[in-house]
Design brief:
The complex is a heterodimer. Chain A is α+β, with helices and mostly antiparallel strands. Chain A has helices at 3-17, 22-54, 79-86, 129-134, 157-162, 199-206, 224-233, 244-250, 252-288, 290-298, 303-333, 356-383, 386-390; strands at 61-66, 101-112, 119-127, 139-143, 152-156, 171-174, 177-186, 195-198, 213-217, 239-243, 337-341, 347-351. By secondary structure, chain B is α+β, with helices and mostly antiparallel strands. Chain B has 2 domains: 2-46 and 259-382, no CATH class; 81-215, no CATH class. Chain B is elongated, with a radius of gyration of 30 Å. Classes of the chains: A alpha+beta, B alpha+beta.
Chain lengths: 393, 385
């Protein structure tokens, strides 16, 4: 028999015998499922957060902040500056001939998280009427838009899921007056975690005369370089100009890095635990097969097929474990919605996203553990002296 | 009684060396993870209990990012039971690089010293902080991290506050370095206080706004009454307040990050299910292989109960040895964290969780094989049936 045939026969024979050792085999499967499940679940959290922020904004819109401010919450623009910004020739015009732009004010409110008494920071965004027209991705899904001048709010779907008391028809009390929630909106991005009000009303309530940012609709996406050059060079202004999409995408970086580090530590420790479990199982599998291996070697089978059979068993079990773990992570967490602090020190609601790339990464870990856990027992099996092994019969 | 059987249990444990070592190493990994994650969880769920209950934080009800006006200070001071009131405004400065982040607060020096007696500073440095308009003091941990010494000029770029000319580049003179009065406070001395007077004069907007108020009260038992009295004073005004103990404030702050407890428990659930399977399999195998030996023990006069106890003790020994080693590693790792990390510690709560997990695990993996061992019939076992 050629080596290839030997490998095929012996691997097949061994795999068919796994059910006889299923108790011990389960240890490998479950150990690796644990590692992969935790890895995939945690990374899917970072993935979901990034996805939500990256979905926010469009390439042909720019956000203008005060120079040096790292987020809307710490940016202050005076009314005169917002007027200058929206007059830029790159701004698209609305049907009424006025620039399609929205000067906005972002402040923070505290709303209790569902099932908790402590408040979480939620963004309250004051927008101009254009702010809603300009964001074409935004749809009112319940109720109506707030009326200018009235203390009325519309709330994002994500915020409604995460926080208490945000249903349409309820009232929030802050800054000494009541605000009625008159509608809910969906946009599939970071704005869904916000409360929106008329900007002038918000300014009056918070005693602010200025704005946080200006959002401008460009005539075309290529007009960006021009508006950026003109506004930053304007001696009357001190502003940073960014594409809206870039501004929000950059915010996910920190979170993704932090989750990556934590996941790395947890996964490595769990993988070490699972590795020893795999070693245990594979050694006992080899010792249970001592007589069989001795017989095969005596019949003329080489060492390589023996190594291959042990490795095949280990890799197959780890693959099953990886698939199980990824499957559990997908079943339990895909689409699970949570919220955490974003860059502006306010909550961003997002859904866990288990992507194929994450599953592949989990499988890679599973196979790595299976490979290392199988190697030493496989070599041990191959080195067993035939005579000693046969005595185990 | 069991003590005299210890050598027997010990040799039973090491009957298959590799298997025991591998299982032990898995246990170590599991308990290392438990120690680390529960230590983090402790920090989030009330690890701030060293913060005295005799200090309250008054913030704007709408959000602590909304600064309260300075005019509220005498009104808070007038509430019966209040000893001293300090105010602090988050400065949001970046030193050299955004990765060097540490918190700075603009405070009134004298009021800060009165409200936070936990910070220790020499009288000369106290006076210098009070009298230097652009003076700043830094915690020892922070000063050591950047190698600062008194007299240094510290440039900070604030992402919130601009100077009158629109620039964000502030310069502060380091006039003091403070320590904590005990180890816990010393570990947390990684913040910086700035002189409010200069800050308020120099900033381009928001003049007269104090930030949040820290209220030191005479009697911690009165905390709830005083908090309610302060909030009642400003009810229905534009600047409604929310007053809570400093500890609650800190926990609320950390909770903003999300439900850390849920994540920790989910991970540990996965870890423990895994380790249960693994150790359980080891114990079951160990007893199965030894069935004839156990039968011999029974022949020699060991009672069924003693055999049960022996197997259980072996499982307990394995779990406790692995668990203790893992926890020791976790304690070592958290103690070795660099000073600028949050003070994550394997405190009494973490140890209590770890010890009860060891016991529960030992019972769960030991009991089924122990019962099996107890029920062994000598004749059947010796006959290999």
């Amino acid at each position: 028999m050629s080596t290839a045939t030997q490998v095929r026969e012996i691997v097949w024979m061994n795999l068919r015998s796994i059910p006889q050792r299923w108790g011990a085999s389960l240890v490998v499967v479950i150990g690796i499922a644990g590692v992969v499940g935790v890895l995939v679940a945690m990374l899917s959290m970072a993935q979901g957060f990034g996805k939500t922020l990256k979905a926010t904004g469009a390439l042909d819109r720019v956000i203008v902040l005060r120079g040096g401010a790292n987020a809307e919450i710490s940016s202050f623009l005076e009314r005169s500056a917002t007027t200058l910004i929206r007059q830029d020739p790159a701004a698209a015009r609305a049907a009424d001939g006025l620039p399609l732009a929205s000067a906005e004010l972002l402040v923070v409110t505290e709303v209790p998280r569902k099932g908790q008494s402590t408040g979480a920071n939620v963004s309250l965004r004051g927008v101009e009427a254009n702010g809603i027209a300009l964001r074409t991705e935004l749809r009112i899904v319940e109720g109506r838009v707030f009326k200018p001048g009235l203390r009325e709010l519309i709330v994002g779907r994500g915020a409604q899921r995460q926080f208490d008391g945000l249903d349409v028809g309820e009232t929030l009390r802050f800054r000494g007056s009541s605000w009625e929630i008159v509608g809910a909106f969906a946009s599939g991005d970071a704005h869904e975690s916000e409360l929106w009000a008329d900007v002038e009303t918000a300014q009056a309530a918070f005693f602010r005369t200025g704005f946080s940012s200006v959002l401008v609709q460009l005539r075309s996406a290529d007009a960006f370089a021009g508006i950026k050059r003109r506004l930053t060079a304007d001696p009357q202004l001190n502003v940073d100009v960014q594409r809206e999409q870039d501004y929000f995408s950059a915010q996910s970086q920190n979170f993704t890095n932090q989750i990556g580090v934590v996941t790395g530590i947890v996964t490595v420790i769990m993988a070490i635990g699972a590795l020893f479990g795999a070693l245990n199982t594979m050694y006992s599998a080899v010792s249970a097969r001592t007589a069989e291996i001795g017989t095969l070697r005596a019949l003329g089978f080489g060492r390589l097929p023996v190594v291959a059979s042990v490795m095949a068993e280990s890799l197959l079990l780890s693959l099953a474990g990886g698939a199980l773990g990824a499957g559990i992570a997908y079943g339990l967490f895909n689409g699970y919605s949570v919220s955490t602090l974003g860059q502006g020190f306010t909550q961003v609601a997002f859904n866990f996203a288990v992507t194929p790339a994450l599953v592949v990464r989990g499988m890679f870990w599973a196979l790595a553990i299976g490979f290392i856990g199988g190697l030493a027992p496989a070599l041990h099996a191959a080195r067993m002296p035939v005579t000693a092994a046969l005595r185990a019969v | 009684m069991l003590l005299k059987y210890l050598p027997l249990i010990w040799s039973g444990l090491w009957r298959k060396k590799t298997r025991t070592v591998f299982t032990g190493l898995s246990l170590i990994a599991a308990f290392l993870l438990l120690g680390l994650l529960q230590a983090v969880n402790s920090l989030f769920s009330g690890g701030a209990d060293f913060l005295g209950a005799n200090r309250l934080i008054t913030q704007a009800r709408i959000s602590f990012t909304q600064p309260l006006p300075m005019r509220m200070l005498p009104q808070i001071e007038a509430v019966p039971g209040v000893q001293s009131v300090s105010h602090s405004q988050f400065f949001g400065g970046v030193y050299q690089d955004a990765r060097n982040f540490f918190p700075q607060f603009a405070v009134n020096p004298q009021r800060m010293f009165d409200t936070y007696p936990e910070w220790v500073l020499s009288p000369a440095q106290r006076r210098a902080f009070i009298s230097t308009p652009n003076g700043a003091i830094a915690g020892r941990v922070l000063a050591d991290r950047f190698g600062w010494k008194i007299g240094d000029r510290i440039p900070l770029t604030s992402f919130i506050w601009t100077l009158a000319d629109g620039s964000r580049a502030w310069e502060w003179e380091l006039v003091g370095i403070f320590d904590g009065r005990d180890q816990q406070w010393s570990e947390r001395a990684s913040l910086m206080y700035l002189n409010y007077q200069y800050f308020d004069e120099a900033r381009s907007g928001g003049k007269g706004l104090a930030g949040v108020f820290a209220v030191r009260i005479k009697d911690a038992l009165q905390a709830e009454r005083i908090a309610a009295a302060i909030d009642a004073k400003f009810a229905n005004s534009r600047d409604e307040t929310k007053t809570q103990s400093e500890q609650e404030f800190q926990i609320g702050f950390l909770r903003q990050l999300g439900d850390i407890g849920f994540i920790v428990n989910a991970i540990l659930g996965a870890v423990f299910f895994t380790i249960l399977m693994l150790t359980g399999n080891t114990m079951a195998q160990a007893v199965r292989e030894r069935t004839p030996e156990l039968a011999v023990l029974k022949c020699l006069g060991f009672t069924d109960r003693t055999v049960l106890a022996l197997v259980l003790a072996e499982a307990l020994l394995l779990c406790v040895l692995g668990g203790l080693a893992g926890m020791a590693l976790a304690s070592f790792a958290t103690a070795a964290l660099p000073a600028d990390f949050p003070p994550v510690r394997t405190d009494a709560r973490v140890w209590a969780i770890a010890l009860s997990s060891m016991l529960a695990l030992a019972l769960a993996v030991g009991l089924p094989p122990a019962l099996h061992a107890m029920r062994i019939k000598i004749v059947d076992a010796l006959a290999g049936r």
